[in-house]
Amino acid sequence: MRTALWAIILKELRQTFRDKRTAALLIVAPVIQLIVLGFAVNLEVDHVPTAIVDLDRTPESRRFADGLVAGETFEMKGNVDTGEEAIELIDHGKVCIAVVLPAGFERSLGDGLPTQVQLLVDGGDSNRAIIAQNAATAYTTQVGFRLAMDRAQQQAAALGVFVKRPALLQVQARILYNPTLNSHIYFVPGVGGTLLLVVTVIVTSMGLAREKEAGTMEQIMVTPMSPMVVILGKTLPYALIAFVDLGLVVAGGALIFKVPIRGQLWLIGLAGILYILTTLGIGLLISTVAKSQQQSFMLAFFFMMPAILLSGFMTPIANMPHWLQLVTHFNPVRHLIEVLRAVLLKAATFSDVAPQLVALGGLGITVFLLAVMAMQRQLK
């Protein structure tokens, strides 16, 4: 049995790496995808294209506009004369936000009257729109408070009355695990779970479908080998490659994107083994249904897209509807990403990630046993 298993493993590895394109897909592509996705996925909002509509054209209105674009959040793209021109710039995607300063802006402030500043925001990119709107609102509130305090002190000085500045309540944030709020440090660990799907689900299912198309599956079925030997021989090479890819993702994230490695790597290895067991089982199940490589690819893609979207890789699971949050508990990608982020960023211990490991173990054993039973029926 050991000789037969070793022979199948060597045959599978030789057949896989004989095709340079497949070898590149398994080893080189994950590294390239890590680099591309790591740099591409970035939720930091800065240098937002901004237009100013200054209908007042006074020193106070210019001071307000200059202060708004002085930082890195907003980037001045030009001054326009009317709100209609600003909306046209937003329609053409040239600016994301336009700030309209009304006529009489300086006079209203000087008289202590309520003064409104209009924000025209492109809501097509909701994340950038919300952050830009909040930043502009915070700046306006700060300016308004400063002007109110200055006016109160001037009036008090005119009356010969001393006015003590009110105590301000300040928030001092201490950011843990990612002090610089670098989005790469958050997203790169999530890339690992998504990249392994290519190796374990797509390549595994297509490899077995290729055997069916080439007619070699019938030859394997008549050989004096047990179905379990055939299944292990077909899956162990891809499990080894996937485990190597997981190591490359962790090392690449640390070297290229400065993702910290604060926890114990053996926890990542254990989670990776359980995850690979699950996804290999899914690949085997797909291969039992698909009759061609094209069908196996489509079925694998049909699984991968929901798995990635429901993993918490891009959007927080807590923001999903409650019924959909329950569904994510059956998603192995979610549990691996949670382990990677917890171990790498928070130095999580075994007890911290035990629920995720138990979930991965349960899913892995269940799915792989179902796949083995389905494959055994085909091989008999």
Protein architecture, described:
With 380 residues, the protein is α/β, with parallel strands linked by helices. It has 2 domains: 229 residues; 112 residues, abc type-2 transporter like fold. It has 14 helices and 4 strands. Strands 2-1-3-4 form a 4-stranded mixed β-sheet, with helices on both faces. The longest helix has 34 residues. The chain is elongated, with a radius of gyration of 29 Å. The model has no long low-confidence stretch (mean pLDDT 81).
The global form is elongated
Total strand count, please?
4
Order of secondary-structure elements: HHEHEHEHEHHHHHHHHH
Residue share in β-strands: 5-15%
Overall tally of domains: 2
- How much is the average pLDDT? 81
Catalogue the unreliable spans: none
Helix content: 55-70%
Number of discrete helical segments: 14
Going by helix content, strand content and strand pairing, the class is alpha/beta
Q: What is the topology, as strand order, of the major beta sheet?
A: 2-1-3-4
Report the sheet with the most strands, covering strand number, pairing sense and barrel closure: 4 strands, mixed
CA-CA gap between termini: 17 Å
Radius of gyration: 29 Å
